[in-house]
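Course assignment 3, question 2. Fill in each field.
Student: A.L.
Task: Predict the tertiary structure for the chain below.
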Amino acid sequence: MLTALGPFTIDLYLPAFPTLESDLGVSPAAIQLTLTGTMIGFGFGQLVVGPWSDKVGRKLPLILATAFHILACIGAALSTDIVWLGVFRVLQGFGAAAGAVVALAMVRDLFGGKPLVKMLSRLALVSGLAPVLAPVIGSQLLLVMPWRGIFWVLAAYGAVVILAVTFFIVETLPKTERHVRGHNTLGQRYRAVLGDRTFVGVAIIGAMTFTGLFSYLSASPFLFQQVYDLSAQQYGILFAVNSLGIVTGVQLSSRLMHRLNIGPQWILSVSTVVLLVTALAIMVLDIAGAGLWGTLVPLWFFIAACGFTLPSVQVIALNGHGHEAGTAASLLGAANFGVA
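Answer field:
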């Protein structure tokens, strides 16, 4: 639930892009800027919430940031023009960032070794699947409500998150573990993470992977609904099929690491090659005029490769940073959404 809040905030309204374009009387580029703004807010929010959670614990930043997210959702639902919608979308992204970064930090607080691989694989499944499923759910919501209703749904989701955190989730970083020698200040925590060349390397790989995934997500409403003339519901079904690619990639990666003891470094080597080959295939087939299926087939394997990559990135990045898990998770997430 925590991990999905950010991707749902970013992508739930994607099927409404054509409707927003006509309703607000703006260009497709202006609508896409609201998506870009959300991702900027999401990336910056992680940089704030992650180190904050290392200092004061996990629950308080999560509750306050999610409350901020709810207020921003209400503002977006009541927006009358593209400027205010864009402003509130940035604020939505900022508030939603807490769920993703704190969830990763909490898992690192509780687990290490093989259990960490298993739990991070589950989180990677959610973080990879949620951006793909969100437009499917959004397209169905548009059947029963206007585009503004999507933001009311997100506000309700945020309220459920706050209730769950308040009453059902325990604090995983007790006061006795918040001050470790050499890891007390913000600067010390950032130096510990950014001084790790392995972390920096896998963060770059993760960011490039998310760039490809979110480029597809941001362009897909116009590509499939306007260029290929699919309805919002057909677009949702297409995303449901693509979601199987994420599931396949994450599950395969998890099985290879957890059960067969194949190293995450090897998995990243393979997945990087697959990402490059499938991306090239999409471009070549488009130039050749292969049509809808010429896009969909290599695209499915590209999305599967994204799912194959995510668990390994998180395992390598977080495994060596138990004392500054929130800071490491925030930098990893900010790299993903900042570059994308």
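Instructor remarks: The chain has one domain: 2-339. The first helix runs from residue 2 to 11.
Grade: pending
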